[in-house]
Structure prediction request, 125 residues.
Amino acid sequence: MAVLLITSRQTGRWVVPKGNLMLGKALYEAAAIEAEEEAGVRGTVSPISIGSFHYTKLLRGGGSVVAEVELFPLAVAEELPTWIEQHQRKRRWFTAPEAATAVDEVELGELIHRFGEGQGPRPVD
Prediction:
């Protein structure tokens, strides 16, 4: 299984596309929109989360907060040649084990590892 990671804008570390809540959109729909804007990919997104992880979000003012992210798998059907954040990020395909070790967030690595082993989406608690 291949996993697409992108670099964060501020630190350049490998991350998954993520974003904020969008008015009138379900979480999984917002995830698909963020994947297109940040990674330049389109496809079919699962409405079932594979889990959540926490990360430290750096704020513009210099502070930070711990944020929780729900992760929704997207079966990529199209990689766009141009996209909104293409000059701010790199994108790269990894095997699931490579992606699990490439990310800094332990919880995210565990989610990728489990998903790569075929444990797939699980119902949200």
Observations:
- Helices lie at 27-39, 96-102, 106-119.
